[in-house]
């Protein structure tokens, strides 16, 4: 397909897959498309459910395998909130946000992206990372922070 529809997201992952020597198979494309559209952080099972609507013949094992491959290639992030299931999000692209952190509601499992620290966060983390780097002689390149709590809706329900 040469012509790109006005609303179609730019498929940055195509060149990344090609560079990695991987073909863009149906399930790979489907998973990346799904992750570029859903705002939430779906689990493998939720992704499987959505992939099945496009590719009914695809099995859960294929979805797991494909997710692992995409994580290894650095195209998607695997998030572990300690729920006994991993969740996934794109590292870049339309539905993926800039560097951000997560607020997880321990009641309903909702994950909220928060990326608005900006300056303050950088200042704070520089203070934390510099002594860590020094103490462990470790070059820190990234971090992930998760906050746990109870969302507004759940607190209202609980009264
Ligand atoms: Zn951060
Ligand atoms: Zn909640
Ligand atoms: Zn996120």
Tell me about this structure.
This protein has 159 residues and is of the alpha+beta class. The chain folds into 2 domains: 1-95, Arc Repressor Mutant, subunit A, CATH 1.10.10; 97-159, Dna Ligase, domain 1. Helix content is 43%, strand content 14%. The strands form 2 sheets. Strands 4-3-5 form a 3-stranded mixed sheet, with no helix packed on it. Strand 3 and strand 4 form a beta hairpin. The chain binds zinc ion (3 copies).
Task: Briefly characterize the structure.
With 159 residues, the protein is of the alpha+beta class.
Mind telling me which CATH architecture of the largest domain this is?
Answer: Orthogonal Bundle
Structural class, from secondary structure content? alpha+beta
* Total E-strand runs: 5
- Look at the structure and give the mean pLDDT: 85
Ligand names: zinc ion
Task: Provide the fold topology.
Blueprint: H1 12-19, H2 26-37, H3 44-54, H4 60-72, E1 76-80, E2 86-90, E3 101-105, E4 111-114, H5 119-136, E5 146-149, H6 152-158
Parallel strand pairs: 3-5
Antiparallel strand pairs: 1-2, 3-4
Helix pairs in contact: 2-3, 3-4
Provide key terms for this protein.
single chain, 159 residues, alpha+beta, Arc Repressor Mutant, subunit A, Dna Ligase, domain 1, 2 domains, three-stranded mixed sheet, two-stranded antiparallel ribbon, 5 strands, 43% helix, globular, disordered N terminus, binds zinc ion
């Amino acid at each position: 397909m040469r012509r790109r529809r006005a609303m179609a997201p730019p498929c940055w992952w195509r060149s990344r897959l090609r560079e990695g020597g991987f073909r863009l198979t149906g399930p790979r494309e489907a998973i990346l498309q799904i992750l570029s559209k859903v705002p939430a952080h779906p689990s493998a099972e939720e992704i499987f459910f959505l992939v099945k609507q496009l590719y009914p013949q695809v099995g859960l094992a294929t979805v797991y395998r494909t997710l692992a491959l995409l994580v290894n290639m650095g195209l998607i992030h695997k998030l572990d909130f300690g729920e006994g299931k991993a969740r996934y999000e794109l590292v870049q692209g339309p539905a993926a946000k800039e560097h951000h952190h997560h607020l997880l509601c321990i009641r309903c499992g909702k994950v909220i992206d928060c990326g608005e620290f900006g300056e303050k966060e950088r200042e704070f983390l520089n203070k934390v990372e510099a002594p860590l780097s020094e103490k462990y002689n470790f070059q820190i390149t990234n971090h992930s922070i998760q906050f746990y709590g109870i969302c507004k809706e759940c607190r209202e329900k609980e009264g």
